[in-house]
Structures are given as C-alpha cells and as structure tokens.
Specification:
The chain is of the alpha+beta class. It is built from six helices and four strands; from the N terminus they run βαβααααββα. A four-stranded mixed beta sheet has the order 2-1-3-4, with helices on one face. β3 and β4 form a beta hairpin.
Length: 114
C-alpha cells in the first residue's frame, strides 16, 4: 500500500496514524519532494472521479485563481499533472488497482482492514 501526500497535511497525518494503529504496512510518498509522474496521475483518474481527486477547496486552487477558469475534466487532469498540490490528500493505492482519496475512517475500515 502507498500513501501519497505531504507530511504537513492533517488528513495525511490521520491516514498514517490510522494505518499505524491498525498494523497496516505502507510506504509514504511525499509528492512535495518527489513529484508524481503523469502516468500515475492518469491511473488515479482512471480509478476515481476527477472531481474527488481534484482539490478545489485548498489554498493552491485559490491562489492560482482556477475557479475563474471553469475547468472541465481534461483541464483538471492537466492541472493535477502540473501541480500535485491540487490533489485531494491523501491518495492511497492498495491491492491490484484500488484507490482511496481523502481521509474517511469508515471507508478505511471497510476497505483496508481485512
């Protein structure tokens, strides 16, 4: 399992604590230090709705003035590739091809705990 995010994000910290408390092994990828490749962003977008993946409530979205652009799905995907900070955090990949986006303890319990 891999957790993608940034260390200072509260939701990422909650996800890490959840995994640690439940004995779930994971690898943490800080995309501020290691930007995600385009093909990985494409994979995420193929598994979850782009509107779940794209964080339109964060500081980065607001400072870039993206609301005024009225981005369609392709535009959102292009911006995610340009700036990983627009991803809703954390993004968790597990199993063969499963993706979770954001922190939701109920969903984590049903999806990640065997």
């Amino acid at each position: 399992m891999k957790i993608y995010g940034i260390k200072t994000c509260g939701s990422v910290q909650k996800a890490i604590k959840f995994c640690e408390a439940n004995g779930i092994d994971f690898e943490f990828i800080d995309f501020r230090k290691t930007p995600l490749e385009d093909n990985l962003i494409d994979f995420f977008a193929s598994k979850v709705d782009i509107n779940l993946l794209f964080n339109n409530k964060g500081t980065k979205y607001k400072t870039l003035g993206l609301k005024e652009l009225n981005l369609d799905n392709d535009g959102k995907l292009a911006w995610l590739k340009k700036d990983n900070m627009l991803l809703k955090r954390p993004v968790i990949s597990y199993g063969e091809d499963k993706i979770l986006c954001g922190f939701n303890e109920t969903i984590y319990q049903s999806s990640l705990i065997k």
